[in-house]
Fold these 2 entries.
Entry 1:
Amino acid sequence: MSKKAIFIGPPGTGKTTLRKIFFEGESASKLLDYALEPTFGEESLIFDLFNEKIGIFDLAGQENERWLESDDKSIFTDASVVLIVMEINTLVDEIEAFVKKIVQIQDEIAPKSNIFLLIHKIDLMQLIDVNAKKRKLRALLEETALKKIYFTSIKSPFFTQTFSYFIDIIKQITDKTISNKVIESDFLNEIIRLLYYLHQEIVLSKEDMLLKLNLTETVIDNIIDYLINKNQIKMKYIGNKTVFSLTEEGKTNFNFIKDHFPLDNIYKFENDTIIPEFPTKKEIPLFIGCFIADKNGKTFLRTEIYNGALESFLREESSDDLESNPFDIELIPMFISALEKFSQEVNIQNLSGFDLKGINLKMKIFNFDSFTVTFFTRASLNFKSIEYKIKKFFLNIFHKYKKEFISFQNTGHTAKDTDLSQKVKQWLLKLNESYTKKIKNVESYGIEQSQELYKELDELQNKLDLTFSILSEKIKTLKINLTKAILDNNLEHIQQIAQISQDFMLRYYEYTDVNINEEISSINKKYPKKAIEAYRNTGGIPIRKGKLTKTFKKWYFTQNKHL
Ligand SMILES: Nc1nc2c(ncn2[C@@H]2O[C@H](COP(=O)(O)OP(=O)(O)O)[C@@H](O)[C@H]2O)c(=O)[nH]1
Ligand SMILES: [Mg+2]
């Protein structure tokens, strides 16, 4: 019996190329070097497979109207498989619209067919963006009658994977059943991401997971069920919230994964950042300076903690090379922008591969809509805990100094010696001041330090206790884990917990800075006890420096009217 498979999609998406490679055995590199003539009408061939024949129909994209709107749509009759080929760079809305058209035709004339969506040429996009798009598309198309979505490319790092997808597809054409689930074909990947976040955050609610993983609720539920069944995670109720954490077995397994596979890309999901590093000998301040540049690498603002700081630290560790060949520091944003463009074309998957030996200086890039901000810092600085703060600061700056930024884009006027440059500098100095005190080297953590750490965790827990029940649950778990590690005399584990705790404390350092208890006791003096109690009962109001008193006052005075 013969079967029928159809390639369809807009012109130039790679249909004929895929057909020739996987059904006619042509060479991928040859097809990339020599563009094919556009297909006219349809080209069909017979693919002989054991005792079955598969008719492969390749429909010209220029004539899609004909295939989709006229009587010629009868070509879909009896098709077992329809392969929609779209390019990765196509807007998701456009992809969705095209898929819907095909699904409609399936309903009308080919109810027995299976539709596969191939998002092709993923080599043209950075991995991080491909992943973002994957998640978006999956969420968008979850409910449609698509059998599977594949992300493909015939370029070298993706070729084998793409080939295995075609094996899947051919099995489907010949009725060999394949799993139905692969709209979630990255199930494993998502599982590892979830384990990774649980490892980092200790306890997560489902809302946290939705936010972090950016998946649909159904998929998250599937993953949770799966992991609970496998005894990798457990569930607990706190108040009216359900939270999840790793089981002992889950921890062991995750540590194994972590030690054996590079998980950098998971981190990259969250962070648009590239981290090349430079070696140096001097003791480095936490924050040395930063650049704001446009996407072409033109510098709008360069800020240093003191004049010449960047140059002095970058020069310090640069060997003879740079001395005989002095380099212009202003070139750095240009270099970054070039790297970014380059990486679009050649698919550099992990720019942090720019490691040099003896590192203690780090460059970290934050991407915003039209600008990038590049930081130079001590290598040991963990950005994760302050990332949110940094992004917030710059979003604010972009908003507040909108005029200056627009004028820079139009006229090239930079922000040297302006109010803005002073502001950024002061902020950097303040960051240095507050974080230098707080960051300790976790590698030096032993039993003694960990007991101190236990106390610090306990204090933080006290301060957060009023409103942040999930956070305080995290701390509880951290404390228990720390106790176990101390009992176990497990230094490696202690240091791991110390690192997590430190990140955690830095993230909430505003809370540890203010002595909330003092503040409450001063309120106690000023306001009647009953009012305080009522305040406590209102709950849910974040306690921040200054805010407590303000919120309280507001509340108090509205209440007072009725008293
Ligand atoms: N970058 C990239 N280009 C591809 C890939 N597959 C095909 N192409 C190119 O896309 C262009 C259009 O391909 P073609 O097969 O004629 O598209 P069709 O109109 O859909 O049949 C050709 O220049 C191919 O070399 C891929 O995976 N990556
Ligand atoms: Mg073609």
Entry 2:
Amino acid sequence: MIAFDYTRPASASEAIAIAAKQAHAKYLGGGTNLIDLMRETIEEPTALVDVSTLSNTIDVRDDRILIGAGVKNTAVAAHRAIRERYPMLARAILAGASAQIRNMASVGGNILQRTRCTYFYDDAAHCNKRWPGTGCDARDGFNRNHAILGASPACVATHPSDMCVALAALDATVHLRGVDGDRTMKLIDLHRLPGGRPDIETELRQGELITAVELPSLPSAARSTYRKVRDRSSYAFALVSVAAALDVDDAGHIRDVRLALGGIAHKPWRAFAAEAALRGTPATQPNFRDAAEIELKDAAGLRDNTFKIELAKRTIVATLSELNGRDRS
Ligand SMILES: Cc1cc2nc3c(=O)[nH]c(=O)nc-3n(C[C@H](O)[C@H](O)[C@H](O)COP(=O)(O)OP(=O)(O)OC[C@H]3O[C@@H](n4cnc5c(N)ncnc54)[C@H](O)[C@@H]3O)c2cc1C
């Protein structure tokens, strides 16, 4: 680990001003990802700007909930309004990491946590994300956990966050502050597909700080869930995950559906094609399966992860069927 400056500013504006003065500053949330990466010399910031004590409130209104970027993952999952209005989000967070890590991890840090591709963490491996232009050892290596949608010849890594999959399904908006002022962006537009530059992972500008995440009013999300398929039942990243909300009318037709997938792409994957195919149709397993086929039609497997294509389809069907069953009980 290299030497670095550490500051704990009293406000977001102060944090941005401090970060702007340093070429290689990083914001520090709970440190559960960044400090590990620093220990491995994968990240080498010369300054850490500790934002973990800023933006620590959850503001609940009828038409939206605003979650400060510094709020701990545990506090989000435990909040009554989140559990009642957006259960998929509480479940997604609780499906991730361990209680100790969730107690430390912040909302901002969770969103910007980096991939768990083992080759990214191995400094003896070729990795375009770590060193652009050096190649990707995961392509022909051990790639059981890697991407089946949206990957590129340069990178097949996945985004590891569970929380972000629910935020994608819920149409969450991210609030940002930088030297040029405030702006907002849909969570689904924040992370990038790898293309030829997998080292550029988000649409954030240099030094921009996440200040909050906004959940819009979405009554159908009260009947929502998160299903995570993984190699162990705890403390493991998703092979495939599904965040879903389903609103079915009295005649059994789908009024609204929200669907996002995790563990399968370089970014949380909103299943827009499947949603469009499902709206207005009867809520039946064959229709769920048809929608899953549509969403996964461009999926491509590598040596070890082709099973994830069928797994993703089945997980979509199982998750929607579970919600549909709840509708009818
Ligand atoms: C053993 C282990 C198992 C795990 N399992 C899971 C799992 O199953 N599912 C899952 O989703 N996650 C899992 N995680 C990852 C965990 O969720 C993340 O480490 C955590 O969410 C990161 O949050 P943090 O606040 O600690 O971020 P930090 O480590 O502090 O920061 C992460 C990144 O975000 C940046 N950052 C932090 N806050 C801001 C901000 N406000 N604005 C701009 N940039 C910011 C930092 O500069 C850094 O680049 C696991 C982690 C470990 C160690």
